[in-house]
Amino acid sequence: RLYQIPFEMPACASDPRTLHLVGDFSAPAEFFVTLGVFSFLYAMAALVLYLRFPSLYAQNKKLPMADFCVTVFFAFLWLVAAAAWGKGLTDVKAATRPDSLLAAMGVCQEEEVVCHPGTTPAMGLANISVVR
């Protein structure tokens, strides 16, 4: 004779919930992209100046120094943006760690339910994006 032990499973399929990550991770990426766009626009403007008006660049002694200062400023901001991108990536890694996700799920907090975290997401390409 087969005995069945009654137990209740959480009604996940009938009660779907959306789990949102805590925090806003878009600001570092937006800063990085905005800086990239401004750097590109400045480089195009400088290229037009170099190629279209070479005599203006050669005759004006303040223009090369101003160009140098703007380039140094963009290089500094690029370093800051890369650090912000790295910090944002670290925050995303912490928020998507399986243990963190399980702690945020209410269904996994019940005594009868056993949740297993699974594997950690692969972040290799994201790490390379910060290094490059």
Helices and strands in order, then pairings?
Blueprint: H1 27-52, H2 54-59, H3 62-95, H4 98-104, H5 124-131
Helix pairs in contact: 1-3, 3-5
Structural key phrases:
single chain; 132 residues; mainly alpha; 5 helices; 61% helix; rod-shaped; disordered N terminus; Synaptophysin/porin; transmembrane
Short account of what is shown:
With 132 residues, the protein is mainly alpha-helical.
Structural commentary:
This protein is mostly helical and 132 residues long. The chain has a domain at 25-89. 61% of the residues lie in helices and 0% in strands. Helix 1 runs antiparallel to helix 3 (62-95) and helix 3 (62-95) runs antiparallel to helix 5 (124-131). The N and C termini lie far apart (65 Å). Residues 1-11 have low confidence and may be disordered. Residues 1-132 form the MARVEL domain.
